[in-house]
Structure formats: structure tokens, C-alpha cells
From TrEMBL:
Main localization (coarse): membrane
Compartment annotation: Cell membrane
Membrane topology, from the record: Multi-pass membrane protein
UniProt keywords, alphabetically: Cell membrane, Membrane, Transmembrane, Transmembrane helix
Pfam families: MNHE
Upper taxonomic lineage: Bacteria, Bacillati, Actinomycetota, Actinomycetes, Pseudonocardiales
InterPro entries hit by this protein: Cation_antiport_E
Gene Ontology MF term list: monoatomic cation transmembrane transporter activity
This protein's name: Multisubunit Na+/H+ antiporter, MnhE subunit
GO CC annotations, alphabetized: plasma membrane
Keyword Transmembrane helix: yes
Family per record: Belongs to the CPA3 antiporters (TC 2.A.63) subunit E family.
Amino acid sequence: MVRSFAKVVALTAIYLLALGQIQPGDILVGVLLAVLLVASARFIHSIPPTEGASPMGPALRRIAGLPALIGGTLVDIGRGSWTVAHYCLRKPPDAEPGTVTIPIGRSSPSSATTWGIRVGVSPDTVVVDVDERRGEMLLHVLDARDPDAVRADQRDSYERRQRRVFP
């Protein structure tokens, strides 16, 4: 009860600071808005998550991960463009284009689709096939001499950029 009261007082104070004035009507509106906000927060936190649905907390965390997903994908596109330009201007003598199988696990269809799109928009990689039954993605890369390094790079990119949004 004391915590809720403190929250109402703090929110009302923030409201009045934002207004820049203290009038009786403003105080009343601030208190009503604060009570409504605190009551709504208590109601939202008291709802147990339903079976199969994600609770509010993870949904907010997923939304918060969107900038990293978009920004990281843009970085991958830039890095892939640089690799393709370098490859076209002067092909490394020992480069061996080829396919690499990337284990993606048995993830949700949205996760596999997002992973395929994210990897496919980068110019240095082409998604050949996604086998959801086996949990693998077949990827064509410009240099397939070290498949383990390609797998590690893809796994790292997934963990850092996508997993938070599309686990």
C-alpha cells in the first residue's frame, strides 16, 4: 500500500513538473491519472500468462530487441557488400565458394523464416534451403573453406541480433 501511494505521489509530481504549474485542477487530474496508471500496472502484473501465450514482460523485451535486430542486419548487409565488392575486384586465390549446412535447431517457423530473410538480404550469402524438419539451413557462401567458422559466425549473429526478438 505504501509503495502504491509513493508511486502515485511520484507520478503526480512528474505530471505537475511536466505541466510547469500547480493549480488545484491540475493536481486532481495528476492524482487521477497516477492512480489509474498504478492500478493498471497492478492489474497487468496480476494476470497469469495463458498457456502458449507469452506474458507481457517477454513481449516488451522482444520489442526492445528490434533496434539490435534491424541495426545488426544493416551491419551484416554492409559487411556482405564489402566482401562481395572485394571478391569481384580481386578474387582471393584460395577462396572456394560452396554450401554450408547451418544447424538452426527446431525453432518456430517465424524464427526460421526471419533467420533466412536476415541471412538472405546480405549479398555475400544465399539461402538455398531451410529444412525445418531436420532443423538445418543450407547456405551458399563465397568462401566455404572453413565451414565451422561460417557456422560460428551465423550462430553468433543469431544470438546477438535475432534471438531476443524471434527466439
